Amino acid sequence: MIGNSRWHWAKGHPGALHTWSDAPGRGVRGALTGWAAVGPVPADGSWPSGSRLETAEVPLARMPSWLGVDRALVGWRAWQRSQTAVLVADGGTALSLTRVDADGGFAGGRLLAGARLQLQALRAGTAGLPALDGPPVLTAQPWPQATAEAMACGVLRGLAAAVAQAGREALAEAPRCTLWLTGGDGPMLAPLVRELLADSSLVVECDPALALEALAALRPVPDR
Q1: Mapping DSSP to helix (H, G, I), strand (E, B) and coil, where does residue 159 land?
Q2: CB 51, CB 35: distance < 8 Å
Q3: Do residues 55 and 68 make contact, with C-beta atoms less than 8 angstroms apart?
Q4: Which of 22, 44, 70, 133 is catalytic?
Q5: Where are the domains of the chain?
Q6: If exposure means fewest CB atoms within 10 Å of the residue's CB, which of 49, 94, 210, 212 is most exposed?
Q7: What are 178-216's pLDDT values in tens digits?
Q8: Spatial contact of 215 and 11, defined as CB atoms under 8 Å apart
Q9: Fold of the domain built from segment(s) 7-116+143-218
């Protein structure tokens, strides 16, 4: 999977996948069973077009043609596993919120800047704030004194609050809705979201590899 800022890889079958991520241009490619892209595809012809999975091939009902393949994949896979209405929060370069109704149909969503993008904007748009290298780290202290820790805390807790509120709204519309967190920032946001939803009946699941699981299911490795 070619993402906006990382390339994501998987070997195996759904339920037994080995997954990892690399910077663009890195990773063992070999013979690809299937791939999809939301980020720029290299122009060197090294990605075989015949094995590319496009949005229209994802079996998500009532799906608009403009929907990103990443959102289609995670929405379909979460619905397939839950068999009920779902809200999927995919924490990558952008944080996407994708709703799927109980019948497996696309039901809209929201988009906002992800954690690293927000931190980059803070650094670029203000004077005196530091650049944070690598993924943001949430400390146990809810009110950090150090600037870098305060930036990470504010961004991650803000994203978690947005996801939790969206989850409450989705549950109000579909009483059996399940909230899924996925993507690179999913495991980091999950405990914060669960804390904010402790008084709610909303079920919260976390699987950072939903998109790759869906891709593996739709482009299975041939039997040998």
Answers
A1: helix
A2: yes
A3: yes
A4: 70
A5: 7-116+143-218
A6: 49
A7: 999 999 999 999 999 999 999 999 999 999 999 999 999
A8: no
A9: Nucleotidyltransferase; domain 5 (3.30.420)
